[in-house]
Fold these 3 entries.
Entry 1:
Amino acid sequence: MTILLIEDEPVVARQLEKLVRQLEPQATIDGPLPSVEQVADYLQNNPRPDLIISDIQLSDGVSFDVFGRLEVSCPIIFTTAYDEYAIRAFKLNSLDYLLKPIDPDDMQSALAKFHRWQPDGDNFQQQFRAFLADMTGHSTHKSYKRRFTGHYLRQIVSVPQEQVAYFCRDEVIYLHTLTGQKLITDYVTLDELEELVDPAAFFRANRQYLVHLEAITGYQPHYSGKLLLTLRQPSSLEITISKDKAPAFRKWFEQG
């Protein structure tokens, strides 16, 4: 049995791979793959896997994009940090989903469901196309969060998107404004925030930073292939974009 893992966060990817290897020691594990582009290349040039375990939000888009372009006839277990997506559709199409952080018992149950799964090929394809159409509709009409709240000087402060510089994870999630304020938010993970914000306005630079387009003045290429972002004053912070995410960032920054 071959299982394809799709996950763009390195730490999460390593944990996911370790967990799946523990639960399915006889399986061949391919990936983890971090981007839509790499997933498309894999599916076009390799035998079909028996099972796909896939994050929804990847470094250069959402996994639905590639599943919509290519014929996928194997079951998929989706993972996500935020359950706004159409949960009903997952259930109707014999698919499963896991909320991050992934509980080992939940993964074990999902894999057990896979082993019980008996596909009707034609029916599966029809249902899966309907599922993707439903997902596309949700993505197209999705409304993104435009204001964020945080704790500042014993007050709850509301900050419009236009005044956000970046979010930073450092034990808790901080909101930094363009004027230099630092607020503690009630969000638990950056993955959760990434599902809420407009992807045209915010970019997940790395595991620690989710940065707003208006805060970026430019970037400097590094010899290693990474990019070093420079932000508007008063911030002197340099945020690093990994080599893998650099192409997606350049495209996003130019389009913005």
Entry 2:
Amino acid sequence: MNIRAVVSQETARISEIIDHCRQMEGPMLPILHEIQAEFGYIPEEAKQIIATALNLSRAEVHGVVTFYHDFRAKPAGRHVLKLCRAEACQSMGAEPLADRVRQILGIDWHETTADGAITLEPVFCLGLCAQAPAAMLDGDLHARLDEHCLGEILAEARA
């Protein structure tokens, strides 16, 4: 399949998502969430398509995409590791653990390892405050983390 056909299919799917959500109250966030669910990220060309459909500027759409940490500008790795950055987790040692994870992986927040295995994202509360520090790997919650637990989580994601 050539690149034009892929782009055309992607544009058509983005338009279908917009049509599905445009009658909702405040449709931009549902549209963005559905596009990310479909593609794994928000393709750059989607911003202009959304802007045109909702009678907004591309800058307004871009502002929303970049404001919310859940939206990605490029595809995530095979696994997504979210580390809690909320106060309860920080008070229980999440910051040194996060530093260690970034060091082990050789990446910073919102980056993906060179092998494409893991994308590291901050999250601001997983609801496990009483069991801090906490993380989520591909939707699975992990609590009461320490360096050993994180090592196992990273090994699981790399396997």
Entry 3:
Amino acid sequence: MSKDNLRINEEIRAREVRVVTANNEQLGVMMLREALRIAAESQLDLVEVAPLAKPPVCRIMDYGKYKYEQQKREKETKKKQKIVTIKEVKVRPNIEDHDFQVKLKNAQRFLQDGDKVKATVMFRGRELSHPELGRQVLIRMAGELKDIANVERDAKLEGKNMIMIFAAKQQQH
């Protein structure tokens, strides 16, 4: 049983339950009927919070309000999460200087936005016989990005592509 579908009121199966009030006051172990009567008198729900305990622990609370608060908390934690995406910058081993600078600026922008950058050198035909040219391009890029990024994965040849992954350095607050 997951945390979000707790048994409430008549769904509780145990004969005897340990009852706790909304403000954590222990009422002790009692028959389920008695606990349900007490909850109904205070116009609240009886919620089974620890079904595996002997006897199960039930709390008298406003279940609707509890669910609402829980959803609000989940929404807040989701808001604080940052989804990191990997952006790709593709270059060729014999890239011209100006083109390299354009790709470098794109990589810097991606890193400043909090994304990871996958730098790919694409080889065609006989260029593959000189992988050191691709490695030099990636090393040059790593050198240019060293102030704002760390190399997460070193240059590695995969098929006809050589790949290096950069992650933004954490800013000191």
